[in-house]
Model the fold of this input.
Amino acid sequence: MLIKKPDDIASSEITDKRVYFNRREFIETALGVAGAAAVLPSLLLPGSAQAGTRLAGVRPASTKAPFGTDEERTPYEDVTRYNNFYEFGVEKEDPALMSKNFRTKPWTVTIEGEVNKPAVYQLEDFIKPHTLEERIYRLRCVEAWSMVIPWVGIPLADIIKRLEPTSKAKYVEFTTLHDPAQMPGQRRAVLKWPYVEGLRMDEAMNPLAILAVGLYGETLPNQNGAPLRLVVPWKYGFKNIKSIVKIRFVEKQPITAWMAAGPSEYGFYANVNPEVNHPRWSQARERRIGEFLKRKTLMFNGYADQVGHMYAAMDLNKYF
Amino acid sequence: MRPWILTSTFNMTQQEWIERVVKPALFIVCLIPLALMAWDAFNNQLGANPIEKIMRRTGDWTLRFLLITLTITPARQLLNLPWLIKLRRMLGLFAFFYALLHFTNYIWLDQYFDVDEIIKDVIKRKYITVGFICFLMLIPLAITSTNNMVKRLGGKRWQKLHKSVYAIAIGGVIHYLWLVKKDLSEPLIYAALLAVLLGYRIWQHQRKKSPQTTQSTMSPAQSG
Done:
């Protein structure tokens, strides 16, 4: 039976950027401004680092948990100018400045390991069979700040099903592009390049996990991990690997970039957990970008109902 | 006719020149980092996380002023500019001033007086422990920076107390080293500069100990 859960019904109350511009267009038309003038505002917006091409055919997000939220979204300017992307420098402002000329076309994604359909895909072909969906997720960085971001992407589970992993595939390993000529941060051994991340198979199949190609209805800006990145909102930000070129299905738990850099600080799971102490930052609270007072950090970043069962039998102090 | 300001400038003794021109100018220069922060704050240029930005900048300037203060003694000896000593107190006090801003930013804007969290932070996070201790150690130095206090303490005791600035500077650099998540290059630059400045003093100390070179006696405010 096709009975939609109320959660799945897209709310009309949401005002995303697209609707906002449509409304502006509507107002301008209503005021008798020529239709051509309607496109002007987006061209004239000063200094807004618009990376994107508008993505077509995106299924709008719900405002209801877990795939959406009615929390205020972090402004586009903050989402695109305050980034941790060490491939382009270690300061928050670096990625936006240093990734301007990063080439994301052509882009290939290599699928290998324990999978029935190993292949090298052109990004377009990799994405094409799927419908793009908008998801509004909280993003919680291990550095105790957070954002709310409207992503556009594809459920990772749909992609994995299509690729047909074998029964030996227990983990999924993701790798970022390694290209020091284009990624100046990689010229210094700040981390072990290329950046590697991983998920347990059930985590990768969780409906919350997506591979994102856009945000705010447009293709991903380079500094946000263009053209393809992982988004797993119940984990700390660094799990959300950017500019992915390889997805490998493996039997053994991968060693991720941050595990290699600081095994006592960064675990494989890296689930948002206010109760697990971190030597550098208290994880009990976080500063939502744009807010003054810190707010309490929620277990699994507020996605406990969707992901808690995967860790029910685990000691989260040990598997942090 | 020459303008009076030039006339008076030319007629000044070195002492007057330092007091009336160099010190006020330096005072204003030392306020520039604060002015830039205020300007950026006013123009919304502190980025997406302004509190973190203020934390970084005030911390950077605390360390810089500490190192500049520690540069005075070697500079006046090596460059033969004994009058530089007259600027040291102000520079040291500016180090304290930026440390105070750094500390206030942490207590007020960052933690918003959440005493529980602050205590936990100071105990659990070793870089905050070190930073907190260094800040506390700076307070007596600031308090005893007046001429009156030098007299009341007596030269020897004052000097002994103010030697703790070496420990504070080391602590400050360690505070920075420990808080950085990865990429230690910036804190290591501070560490290298501090090593040079402290190394100079060790070298001087060794020289003093050898019998042929006896140093002339200095007033407490002049030895470093």
About this structure: Chain B has one domain: 16-201. The mean pLDDT of chain B is 91. The first helix of chain B runs from residue 4 to 11.
